[in-house]
Structures are given as structure tokens and as C-alpha cells.
Amino acid sequence: MAMVIAVGIAMSLDWARPSWAALGVAVCTQLSDGESIQKAFARIGGTLLGAIVLLIGMSAFPQDRFLVLLYAGSMLFTFGYLMSSVRNFYFFYIAAVLPVLIATADQSDPILFFQLVTTRLLDTCLGVGVYVAVALMLFPTSTAAKFRHLIQDQAGALRKLIGAVVRGADKETAQVLSGLHQRQAAALGSLDVAGLDSLDIHERRADWRRAVALLGEALDAVDWAMLERAALPRDVLARELPGLERYDAEMAARLEAIAAMVDRQPAEAKARDVDLAFSSGIEDRLEAEALGTLLSLRAHLLEIDRQTRALLDTVERIVGRAEAARPAAPLPAPSRTIIPDPERVMCAVRVVIGFWAAHAFYIYVWGMPMPPFVLLVATVAGLQLSMMMPFIRPIVVMPAVIVGMCGGFVIHIFLMPQLSGFTELALFMIFPSVFLILYFFSGINKAIGIALWAAATQLNSNVQVYSFSFFTDGLAAVFIAVCLLQLVWQFPFNFTPQRGYERQLRRYLQSADAMLQRMQDGDGHGETWWQRQLRIHHQKQVAVLPQRLSVWASQLPVETVGPEVVQHAKELSTRLGVLSKRLDELSTGQRAGAATPKMAGELAAWRATLAALSAGIEGREKAWEEGAQATSDHPAAHEIRPETASPTGDGDAERQALSERYRRLSASRAMSSALAGAMEQAREVDWPRLREPRFNV
Amino acid sequence: MPPTELHLGFGIYAAPTFIVIVLALLCASATAVLLNRYRLSRYFLRRQIAFFAMVTIFVVLIGTFIIPV
Predict the structure, then answer these.
(1) Of these four, A42, A376, A595, A613, which has the most CB atoms within 10 Å of its CB?
(2) Contact B41/A697, CB-based, under 8 Å?
(3) What ipTM score was computed for the predicted complex, to two decimals?
(4) B51 and A559: CB-CB below 8 Å?
(5) In this predicted model, what pLDDT tens digit does every residue of A469-479 receive, in sequence order?
(6) CB distance B36–A695 less than 8 Å?
(7) Which of B33, B36, B45, B48 to mutate to test the interface with A (most CBs of A within 10 A)?
(8) Within 10 A of A73 (CB to CB), how many other CB atoms are there?
(9) DSSP letters of A490-518?
């Protein structure tokens, strides 16, 4: 419907290129309901930024195409890199695409650029505006409700996970855990969207932001608690922490109250203190390692208590019980580094190489069909494929291309001449064909299908031109562009899933080794600015890569590498996730389990294991035995083993220090076992088979 | 031999070479998929060149026996 209205208005006002309005609608169809306003702002803002970039480029280097290429390449690289940030991707995507689009739209007269930019802005505003109006007026969906549901779901998940820590994990836990962190990552974006279309969320958005952050901290703490819980025998917890049942009931009551208040229902909200004292004589019954684990678990449970209490306060403030609110403590600022993410840099370079390759065709290959179209498709599809789904083979978009173009062409030649007036055009052509494309395609193919349909039907003005060669040339141009993208998929960087998986795994191991080396060299005191940047970079890599590895593992070609290899590769990424958490615990100075230089023997053994793991993946069979040896033979951590004294009870400074030593011991044990687990899993993967050469079809 | 064109219907004519090349590409791709599936690709040293060789072979075969060019 939006397409029909947008094209209708553009045609009735006799604007140039109504297909741009159609494109505005086409791109919006990628969105889920309710994100339209945000996307509309991003599209218009991106169009403005892109227009400024284009006009600067054209006025600075009007006569030298290579300088323009360099300038355009650097802009494409910058915007492409920034596009991978989840929240602003669309803004930068449009800013990257627009200069190429305008520059290729009318090469005959650069003076027309300004007019074209204006037209583009008008058509874009129209397309997006109409889409938003149709979405909001005819099919209104409240994103506020969606956001509130998301927070409720997360609170519910937190409650179930706390239950799992107290009573032990069951089948339901795995279900709760799946997608938990993605939902948490999506919560801030969802808040941005809800803040745009609902006043109540907008007014309290700072508090909501805080609530989301607190929920994230609590989920992180419960993650830790589950890890520690898994290392303890089943009966120990109930025996040694008698207050646990009451703790569980209190957390359940708090989270229920939070969920109810988020849903705007009345709720009894009163946070009571929890008592998590150990039972007496615990140090006689437990080994030092188990005691350390229990101490860590207790610390994480208390952290959950603090976070949920703060969350309850924040939610109370949101629902207007301001008198109950205490002043909010500031949240820790995320650490940043100027070192860019290597994988994202590679993806952005891929976009630029694709753009330059298409340009080289444009300049040097004579008689190529529709070179501007090749350039445009190579840039637009290159950006989407490289930055969002780098593992996808570009050639797989060809079915959507063929359906979109052939369908559009058949309609254009055989149906359009029979139609008279916009009503018939809308009723018999635009509405049914867009509906069918949306129905049969999903994801990126949906947008490609509609965009090429809009191009093939040549809705460029009220005066229709029927051209067979336009269609054949267009199809050939898209095919050439997709072939170019297929080439840059493997050169200069190879993005086939098996290579990408292995590359990122190697990078993970390097970063993990760098973190361990840093711990060996001493803690963070007196580090230079550059060392700090490097440290944060490695920490971020170790934190991020397991999730990415899991995504890449799911993209491995099952039919050629076999289902076992895919399964083992996925499991390896899960094990590396555990290893990451353990590394984080050891490397963060503030945590009680942080490594000290006294652990030199252990650190050396862990590094040796990592080196063996790396060599094993490379194909050195003996490395697996060496790695297993290093994990089992490392010094017995006697340097950090505490004397037999009680770390429990009322905490004076000495007992606190002793408790930290117990926890350090337990963290070191847990690290060894996480490393051994990763090693064992890596050995299961059939690396030669994964690396086996094959046709990339 | 005089130049020929294939009638695709609706008054659209196409060069047989074009059709033959498209078919050869599809056949070569299908062959490559099968070679991957049965782990025979590892016996090829330069797979990109091997793929072009397969396309050429299919062009010759289809152009000789199915759609004479």
C-alpha cells in the first residue's frame, strides 16, 4: 500500500524519478513493525550526510577521477566500518550509498548533482514518510509494549536462571539461555525505538536506559553464578548456604514485582535484606578449591542481590513512586580503544575493493552493459553483504535478482501498456507484484527483489519508455556486479565460512595468549597509553569472538564438511565462551579472582596449552598430547594456596584477603579446566576435513 | 554456416552461444557441487581453473550435441 501511495504522489506531482520513492518504501520493508520512524530519521539524516560528502568531493576534485576514487573509497571504508555498529548502521549505510547513487544517476552533467540531491531527498522523504504514515495509521503497533515485554521477558529469564543456580540446571535452563544475550543486546535499540513513538518511554528514557544496564549486569552476574555452580557438587550448595531457599524466594518476589510494574500493574515492591551466611565448620568439610568456588558463587549471588535491588529502585522511579527512590549510583563507563576490530576492517576493505573493481570496469572495459548500474549494485549489495553477512556467498542473491528483474520486465512489457491511469497501475501491477515478492522472499533477498523490480519496471517518470535492451543490459549488469562481489568474497581476504572460522579462532588464541602474557608481566600499574589500548583490544576480542565463531560455525557447509564437524565447531565456540569468562576474571584487577605474578607457573602452563592448541589446529598431531600434558602437569598452585584458616564469618581485612586467595585458587582451577575443555573439544574437530580444498559454488 | 538465432517466443530472439554458455555455467556449477559433496574436489590443484575448464567442456558438448552453435 505504501508503495502504491508513494509512487502515486510522486507521479501526480510530476517529480523526477518516482522509483526513488518506491525504493524508499522497498528498503523500509526490511524492518520489523515500529522501527519505521527511527529508520526514517536515519534515512533522511544519512541522505543529508551523503549529500554533503558528495558535494565536497565533487567541488574538491572536479577534474581528477583517481582522487575522487580515493576520496570515495576512504568515505566508503569509514561509513562501512561504522555501519557494523548495531544502533546506527542504517544511517551510515545510506551515507555510504548516496554519493555513489547520485554520481552514477546522471554522469553527463555534474552541475545537476545539486538538483539530483534535492530530488533524492524529496523522493526519500516521500517514500519513507508514506511508509511511516501507512505503518502507523493503518497497521499501528506499539513499540513501547514490545519494549516492555522484552524487559519483562528478561526479568522472567533472570528469575528462572537464579532458580537454576539454586536448584540445579534442567532442560528449561538451556531454553532460557538461548538468545538471552542477543535479546539483552537488542534491548537498548528497542528502547531507542520505543522512545521515539511513545511519550511515556521518552520522558523516562534515562531511567529506562539505566534499568536495561542493570538488567545486563544482573544477567552477567547470574552467568558467572551458573559457571561456578556447575563446578560444585550437587548437594554442597544446599548444605553450606542454608539461606539459599529464602534468597531464591526473595529474588523471585523482587523480579515478579519488577515485571508487574513494567507492565503497569500494581505491585508490592519492598526489597528485603538477604542472608547468605555459610553454615559453621565449612572449611573442615570442603577442599580449598571447592571453598574458593563457593566463595565466588556467594559473591556473585550478592552481586545479583545488589543489581536487582537497584533495578527495583529504578523501576519504582519510572512508575512514579519517586518518594521511594534513592539517588542512583553512576554506572561504570565502558572501556574504549582506538584499535579497530580487524574483522570489521577486513569487511570494510572488501567493500572498497568491490567498489574500485566496479569502477575499473566502468573506466577500462568498453562496451560493458550499464556501467553505472554495475557500480551501484556492487556498492549497495557489497555493503549489505560484507558488513552484515560476510559469510554469505554473493552469488546466492541471483535467484532474487532474476525473479525481481524478469518479473518486473514481463510486467513492464506485457502488462503496463494495457493499463490506463494510476488506479489500474496500482491495482493490477504495483500492489500484487510487491505483495508476491514480500511473500516469497525474506531478509536481504526481499529488498533486492523489490529494488530490482522497481528498477525493471522503469517507473522513472510519467512518460513510460519500453526498452528490451534496458532489461537485458540491466540483468547482465547485475550479474557482472554479483560476479565481482563473488571475486572479492575470496580476494584479498577469504570470507568462506571455513576460512573465516579458522582465522577468527586463530585471532582468539592470539588475543588470549596476549592477555596471559600481560598477566605474566604484571598488573596494569604503570602501563603506557599504547599498552592500555592493546590490553583493551585483546580483552574485547576475547569477549566478542566466541559469539562470532558460533555464528560462523553455523554457516559451515554441512554437505561438504559433514554435520559432525559443524556440531563440534559450534561446541568449541561455546567452550571458548567459558574460557573467555575465566580469562576476564583473571585479568580484571578489581575482581577477587584476579591473577597475580605469584601465579607465574600456572600462567606459563596455560600459555603452553594455548600454544599447543594452536599447533594442534595447524595439524601437528603431537601437539594435542603436549597440550593435555601441560594442562594436567602445571604447578599445583601452591604459591596461592591459602593456609588452613577460615575465610568465612565477619570480614575483617585479614579474612577478606584470605577469602580472595581462596577465590583466586578456585579461579585458577576453573581456568585450567576451561582450557582443558576447549582443548578436548578442539581435538574433536576434524581440522584437515574443514580445511579441505573445494569449489566455492 | 549462416548465423542463426533461437526464437524464445513473443518475438524474442537470442544467440545460441548465449544460451549454451548459460547452460554450461549451470552444468559446471552442478558438477562442482557434486564434486564437493563426494569430497573429490581435494584432488584438483587449481580449482578456479578447473571450473573454467569444466565450463569449456560443457560449452563444447552442449554446443555440439544439444544446441548446435
Answers:
(1) A595
(2) no
(3) 0.86
(4) no
(5) 878 888 889 88
(6) yes
(7) B36
(8) 17
(9) TSSS---HHHHHHHHHHHHHHHHHHHHHH
